[in-house]
Amino acid sequence: MATMATLARGPGARFRWWPWASAGGVRGAARGSAGQPEYNLLVIGGGSGGLACAKEAAQLGRKVAVVDYVEPSPRGTQWGLGGTCVNVGCIPKKLMHHAALLGHVIKDAHHYGWETAQPIRHDWKKMAEAVQNHVKSLNWGHRVQLQERKVKYFNIKATFVDKHTVRGVTKDGKETVLSAEHIVIATGGRPKYPNHIEGALEYGITSDDIFWLKESPGKTLVVGASYVALECAGFLTGIGLDTTVMVRSIPLRGFDQQMSSLVTEHMESHGTRFLRGCIPSRIQRLPDGQLQVTWEDCASGKKDTDTFNTVLWAIGRIPQTRGLNLEKAGVNTNPENQKILVDSWEATSVPHIYAIGDVAEGRPELTPTAIMAGKLLAQRLFGQSSELMDYDNVPTTVFTPLEYGCVGLSEEEAVARYGQERIEVYHAYYKPLEFTVADRDASQCYIKMVCLREPPQLVLGLHFLGPNAGEVTQGFALGIKCRASYAQVMRTVGIHPTCSEEIVKLRISKRSGLDPTVTGC
Q: Angle 32-38-43 (CA atoms, 0-180°, nearest 5)?
C-alpha cells in the first residue's frame, strides 16, 4: 500500500509533511477506500473540550467520531456523556451551592417582611434528585447534538493500537477498531485517592460520588484544601451539615493567598470547622456504621480521632492517560504526573495527535479553556485558521459561600515577576447593599486590583470576594484581556447600586496605608 501523507504542524510551529500510514497497517482496522483512515477526526473523551472540538469539526464538514467511556468510581458511581463538568463538577456543584445560598436568603427573608416557618429544614434527597435529573437531561442533550451534527458516538473504552488507530471495547466486551487522520485526546482527569492511608479507598468518597448520593452525607470530613474541597465543604455547611475541612498545608494553592485567607475566614465564621496542619492516617468503620478517622498534627506529632458519617477526599486529580497505551502511538507524557506534553498548537510529540483540557501539561483545569481550545483546534485543522488558544488572563471563580472571582496575576505572582516597587495594589473592604437590612457580616467582602505602578498603570490582576463573583469577574475579564489600565477603569462609570461598581471606585492603595473600608452608599 502506498504511503499517504498529510499536512501537519510540528512543535516548531512550521508546516511539514508527515506520513500517516505505513505499509501493512493494523489487522482489522476500520479504514475507508484506498486504505485511508475512516474518520477525519477521532476524539477520545466526551467531556466539554472533546465535544466542542468534535462538533466544531463536524460543522466544518468533516467526518468525526467521539469515543467516551466512564469507569465507575471505587464506590460504583457512574454517569453519562458530558465529562466531569456536566456530571460531577461545575454543574451539580453550582446547583448545590445555589441550594445553600437559598438557605441564607430564607433566613434573611423575615428582615424584609416575609414570614417563614421555623425551623428551616433541608431535604438532601429532594435536592439530589432534582440536580441529578437536570444532569441526565444534559447527557441526553449532548447525545442529540452529536446526532444532529452527524458525529458518530461510541460508548467504548479506547486504547491506541498505533499512531492512527484505536481499539475500543464495550461493557459487553465487544471490540471496535477505528482509524482517523487526526486524533484528539481529551480524557480529562479523575480524583486522587491516598492509597497509602488505611481505609481511604474502602470507606472514602470523592467529588465523583458526592453529587450522586441518594441520602444525605451527614457529618462530613473533607480532606484537602483545593477549590473542590472548599466548594464542597461550603455547600455542605450551608445546607446545615456538620462539616470539617482537614488542611495539610495552605488552602487554595496557586490562588492569591490574601484572598484565600479571607475565603476560609468567612467559612469558619459561618460554621465550617478547619483542622490545619493535619494529615489523616487511618479510617475505620465502627459497628454502628460511622467512620472513625485518626489524624496527626504535623507540627506536634500529636494524634487525634473523631467520627464522621462521610469522608470526602479532595486532594487533587490525576490525568486519565494510563490506560490509553500512549506508548503504542509514541505520545510523550510528563513522567511525574502522566500529563501529555503539548506545544502551543496543542500538538503532542506525534504531530497529528493532539491533547486538550485537563489531560494536557501546563493547561488550566477549567472547562471554558478546554472548550475554546477544542474549537480553535478544529478551526486550525479544518477551517484554514491559525489562531492559537491564549491561556493568559483566564478568569475563574471559586464557588465558596462567599464567592471568589479572579483574573490575571495574584499579588504574589505580580511581585515575583515585576518586583515590589513596580507594583501598586488598590483595594477596598465593602458591604453589599443586600447585606445591610439583614445586618449580615461583610468582614470578608474585599476587592483588590493589582497594577503596574508606572502610568497608565496596566491592570495585572483583579480579585473580587463577594456575592455573584463569577458574574462580576466575567465582565471585567474582557477589559483586562484587552490590556485595560487603572486609569481606564477609573474612567468607567459604575452601575449603582451594585457590588461591581466598587471596582471602578478603588482609590486607596496598600502603599498609602489608608483605611480601605468603604463608607456611605
A: 175
pLDDT in tens, 255-292: 999 999 999 999 999 999 999 999 999 999 999 999 99
How far is it, in rounded angstroms, from Cα 507 to Cα 165? Answer: 59
Residue of 229, 399, 398 lying closest to 314 (CA atoms): 229
Peptide bond into 497 cis (omega under 30): yes
Per residue in 50-60, pLDDT (tens digit) is 999 999 999 99
Q: Is 496 a catalytic residue?
A: yes
Q: List strand residue ranges (DSSP E) for 277-403, in order.
A: 278-285, 291-297, 303-308, 310-313, 317-319, 353-355, 396-398
Query: With contact defined as beta carbons under 8 Å apart, do 52 and 188 qualify?
Result: no
C-beta neighbour count of 472 within 10 angstroms: 24
Cβ contact 180:204 at 8 Å: no
- Cell numbers of 204, please? 472514602
Give the burial string for 320-356 (b: 16+ CB within 10 Å, else e): bbeebbbeebebebeeeebbbbbbebbbbbbbbbbbb
Burial 407-433 (b: 16+ CB within 10 A, else e): bbbbbeebbeebeeeebbbbbbbbbbe
- Cα gap 393→482, rounded to integer Å: 10
Can you tell me the distance from the alpha carbon of 98 to that of 85, in angstroms, rounded to the nearest whole number? Answer: 16
Task: Yes or no: say if 324 and 158 are a contact pair by the CB < 8 Å rule.
Answer: yes
d(Cα 168, Cα 353) in Å, to the nearest integer? 17
Q: Report the alpha-carbon distance of residue 216 to residue 398 in Å, rounded.
A: 23
**Amino acid sitting at position 262:** L
Spot the catalytic one: 182, 196, 266, 496.
496
Candidates 167, 186, 185, 163; CA nearest to 176 is: 167
Distance, CA of 21 to CA of 6 (rounded, Å):
10
Query: Which amino acid appears at position 49 of this protein?
Result: G
Grid cell 437536570 is found at 134
Against a cut of 0.90, is the pTM above it? yes
Q: Three-state DSSP class for 212?
A: coil
CB 348 within 8 A of CB 355: yes
At residue 441's C-alpha, the angle toward residues 440 and 444, to 5°, is 135
